[in-house]
Structure formats: C-alpha cells, structure tokens
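[Q] Does anyone have a clean structure-token version of this?
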Amino acid sequence: MAMTASSPRVLLRRLREVMAGSGSPQDRLNLVVSQIASNMVAEVCSVYLMREGRLLELFATEGLNPQAVHKTQLQVGEGLVGDIAAHARPLNLKDAQSHPLFAYRPETGEEIYHSLMGVPILRGGRVLGVVAVQNRTMRDYTEEEVEALQTVAMVLAEMVGSGQLVESSAFEESVAAALPQRLEARILAEGIAMGRAVLHEPRIEVARTIAEDVATEQRRLAGAVEGLRSSIDRLLASSELVAGGESRDVLEAYKMFAYDRGWLARLEAAVDSGLTAEAAIKRVHEETRARMHEITDPYLRDRLADLDDLANRLYLHLTGRQRGLPDQLPDDAIVVARHMGPAELLDYDRRRLRAVLLEEGSPASHVAIVARALDIPLLGRCAGITDLTDPGDPIIVDGDHGQVFIRPQEDVVQAFEQNLAARAQRQAKFAALRSEAATTRDAVAVSLHINAGLLVDLHHLDDTGADGIGLYRTELHFMVRASMPNVSEQTDYYRRVLDHAGPRAVVFRTLDIGGDKILPYQHDDTQEENPAMGWRAIRIALDRPALLKAQLRALLAAAAGRRLDVMFPMVAEVAEFKAARTILENEVARMARLGRDLPLSIRVGSMLEVPSLMWQLDSLLPEVDFISVGSNDLVQFLFAVDRGSPRVAGRYDPLSPVVLSFLRSVVSRCDEAGVPVSLCGEMAGSPLEAMALIGLGFRTVSMPPAAVGPVKEMVRSLDAGRLSTFMDSLYGSTEHSVREQLQRFAEDNQVVI
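[A] Here you go.
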C-alpha cells in the first residue's frame, strides 16, 4: 500500500505537534516513530542513533520488541542498518532477510518482517543514525515513499542535534583535544604560510524545519535562487581572473551548476514535501555530501564540491546573511574547509589570505586552478582538519612537503621561522641564478624545462629562467571547461601559449584524458577496474580520431610560421605512433591544399612510459623526431604499482637499479640513433634524482617550475663525468635502492642537493 500525495506534509505537521507537546525526549521519540509508522502504513518504524565507537543503538521502535530499545547495537557496516550508515545511502528491499548483509537480532522479534526501507539521518555531513520502516509482506516501497522518509530523516536530524529527542548526555560528539596536530596533505598549489585558522563554511542553521505555507516557501526559494545567479553573473563580469583564460572557463562551469535544472528541481521537491526553504537547502546539501563520500572519481567529487558551495551561497541569499569576511578576516588568515568552490575563494580578501586547507580537493579541481592563478598556497586531502581546528588556532602550512601543523609547539614555530628565513635566502640565490647557464663543472650543458598545463603557469618561464616547456599538458584546458573547445578556441589558446613562450620551445602533449582525468562533457559509463591502464590517452585518440584531428588542426594553425613540437602519450606499440603521425601528416596536407600557413618546422615525438616500447626502439626510433620519457607512469608500470594507492605508492624507489638500468638503456639507444631524448616527471624535480638522470646521460629534463632553481644549483656544482663513472658500479646492484650511495657521492663531491 502506498501513501497518498499529501502524506509527507501531514506527517510533518504531526511531528511538529509532537515537538510542541510535553514529555521527556524519549517519550517524544517514541511518539515520533509511532507517527511515522502510522503515516507510512508500516508495521515497524525504528530509529537507531550513533554512539561512541561507531555503534548504532536502537533508541526507539514501533513494532519491534520494546525490550530491545537501548540494548540492540550494530557496528557501522554491520547488517542492513549498519550498511545504510556506512554508505550514507538509502536501502529499499522487498525481501530484506534474503540480503547477504541481513544481521538477525533475536531480541528484536523482527524475523516476521520481510520488507525494509531505511535512510540515513544526516547532519553536518555526518551520519547521526538511521530510520527504518518494515512490513510483514514483501512490499515494494515507491520512490515517493523513500523521498518522504528522507524528508523525515532530515527533520529528525535537526531534532536530535538540538536535543529535543535525545538527552544530551546520551549523544556525545567527540572533539579534538587542544593538542598539537600534524597532518599529511596533498599539494594542490605550492607555497608556505603561517597564520590563524578561519573556518570557511557558513553553518546552515534551520530554526524552522516544517513549512507553514508551502507556496510562500517556494517563493522564498525562487527569490534566493535568482539572487544567487545574479551574484555569480556579477562575479563573472567583474573578476580580475576573467582575462586569464582558464579562470573564465572555471567560473562559467561553476555558473552552469547554478543554472542546473536538476539541482533546482531537487530543492523545489524538498519544499513541496513540506520543508521550509532553509530545510530544503540543508537536505539537498546533506545528500550532496553523502554522495561525495561514495564517489571515488576525483573529477566528479570536485564537481559535487561546487554544488556544495552553491548550497552555502544559496542559504546566505535566502537568509540575507553576509559573510562579512573583509572585516572579520585576520591579517594572516589560513582558511580551513571541507571543500571550496572557486567563487568562494574569490570572496576572500587576498591581502589577508595566506593559505587554504581542504579535506577534499585535487590538482584539477576548480578551486585549485584558481588558487594557482592567484599564487595562494593550497593543500588538499587534509584528513579531519575541520574537526581538529578551532577558529583562531595557529597553523603552519608547509606546501613544499605537504604538511600541516595545527597549534604547533614553540620549537616547531621557531624551526619554521628559521626555514622561512633560509627559504628567502635560497629564493634570492635561485633568482640570481635565473640568467646563469645550467652547465656542470666539467662543461656539460643541461637544458632545464618546466611542466605546464594552463596559461597561468606561463609566467614561470620568466620567473625561473627555464629554457622552455618540456611538457604542456593540453588536457587541463579541456578539463576546466563546461564544453568541448572547438578548433577556433583551441587555436587561439595554443597561439597564446606560443606567443608567451616566444623563442623558447614548447612541447605539446596531445590529450591524455581517461583514467582519473575525465572531461565534464565526456560521457562513458564503462567502469574500468584499472583505469590507469585502460582506455586513455592515444587509445582514445585513435578510437575517436575526430578529437585528435581537431586538436592537431588547431596546433598547426597556432604554430603557423614558427616551430611546432608535439608528442603522443601512452604509446605501447609502434603501430599506434605511426597511426597518430599519419593523422598529423594528413592534417598538414589538408592545410597545404587550402593554402593555409604552416609551421616553419614540425617535430613529432613519442612519450616512453609503457615499458613494451623499450623492446620496439629499433622500429620506433627511425619514425620519431624525439623521445620523452614519462617517469611517473613508467615507474608505476615497471613495478606494477598504483602510485595513487597510499599502501604501495612509496613501496618502490625510482632510484632503484632496475629503473636506472632501464633508463640508461633508453638513453644509450637514442644516442646511437641520433634521436634527442628527454625526461619529464617527478624524477626531474628533485635535485638528487635529477643528478642521477644526468649521470645516466640525460641532457634535457622537464620539471615543476619550483624545482628549476634547486636543480640548476645542483647542476652547477656537479662533475658529470665523475658521476657517470661512479654510477657504472650501481646498475648491477640487487639492492632495493641506491639512494644512499648517490647521497654519499653528493656529499663527498660537494654537490648541492
């Protein structure tokens, strides 16, 4: 039997009457479950709440054995109720007892009930408990009934959180002791800072949960949505980032979410169910957060973070509240948040903002792209930082090593201040080296290039004195946009890159999408068990040649009258490279037929990151103009190790005899064939690893911009011939790594690493 359309509103009115009545919190909770069961035509309604130690305790029930209340407990993840709590998602089962996760508790007397529908009770992005209904028959609960129970769960969350349904002593929330804390984090935008914590998220506080007049609440919601959209339009019109290229694309994509009909429909449906506009925003907000915990795809998580940001901003428009950050922000603000959208970052006064710390976030997220454009240090994946931090806490942000120190002890502060002074001295020394040649003591010239992927990265060419861009990641321009750039837009973009680089070389890598780099407009529902070795890079390009043709056509047009260097990623067979080069040659012929201006010269290379290519070099080298070793993927493929897995990412060392022997063979074979070879990747960005690469024979390396100064300093202190001779004794070693031997060589020979 299904509910009538008016049931959710009727139930919410009855719950309001219960809360207005007298009695203890337990009496009220007992009445609540009774009302829910009656309204939903269920024989059982039970509420489980979270205890310390991640235990779900039965707090009230209508239909099960009342003696089980406060006695029946389940671990999070245990049984169906535990599964709902663990994944923060509803379950709707016609025959719950046949489900493999069903956990029988004899004291409850639930063995006579077959169907079950349960939803999480969410507040502040956390699971407070579970509310579930059951029936003896194998009942198909409708989507409308699931929605109704979710609405009730949202109301319960507010009642529980405010102490109206549960004695405060029964529901303790753990808080971090005010002790020093050190967290590991992921570097999203480089830099270091010291300052005071500012908690970012506006609290969506719901004083009135149940609507008295649904039509009035719908009008309030519509007005707030219109105000939100207008504010984003004004931000786009006035932002200092608009002329920066990708930054406009970022904000345009953000605007797309604000105009998303699906998002607005969910808000309107929540109000229509009987919630106030504030409660509706909070419910959709909580559901978004719960979905984020379930999604592993980094791109989708970042887009959900944008939706979460929109909920916060919509709430402020609805209530007329203002953040007031310019007046409240300290001069040394370190903003702490679960996640943040790009528009919210732009709300802060840059003169006072020192750094941003996020629990979520990835290098390709919109907020990370904007932070890099503004030179604001940003660290992500700071686990639990919003719980560990109180407003005003002193914080040290080490964006060089991916560390955060909360309430640091005095010795840590002193050490950091000393590091700041030393860093300033080193930066001054690197700046002095900017115009100096990267030449070893025995006159070996080394060409230092930077890795880039966005227009905002290009100023590093001048800042570092790099010789060029050894790896331009073209996919990042695609990832920050809401739609696929056409040939004209790509041409303009690549022309701006070349214009800024001037006479310096730029090596464009064709689209390396797939894996963890998903385009927002790329629709492919295929789930791959190992996406890093799946349908990505050149495999997509050859399967979707129109995509590659458009990009190559744009690159050729942008480089008219000057040099063009282009390379193909993830090549595993010579046939793949030849197929891609044929597409390029066809585009060159097409432009010639049309009388279009062509590049003065075209160099076509292959990345060597798939080990199988090593055994095809005799066939490959005559086909290529250069080889670029992609050390990041090469090392993970050599060792069959997922570098994204924290359990194994650090298990193998790139300075192992295996890797060094492999790379030495590549250099030797390329030198014999007269084919230039370079390396781009994390190995080139560390002075010690870069030293080893020079010893192997590499004379061109590409690295993150911040590494150019330290690596150049190392190069100018090195005798390359002596190092090469020393390394001859390392290749046959059976040790896990020869890092210590290389460090000793550097110390003995006064090499600055």
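[Q] Thanks! Anything notable?
[A] The two ends are 74 Å apart (CA to CA).
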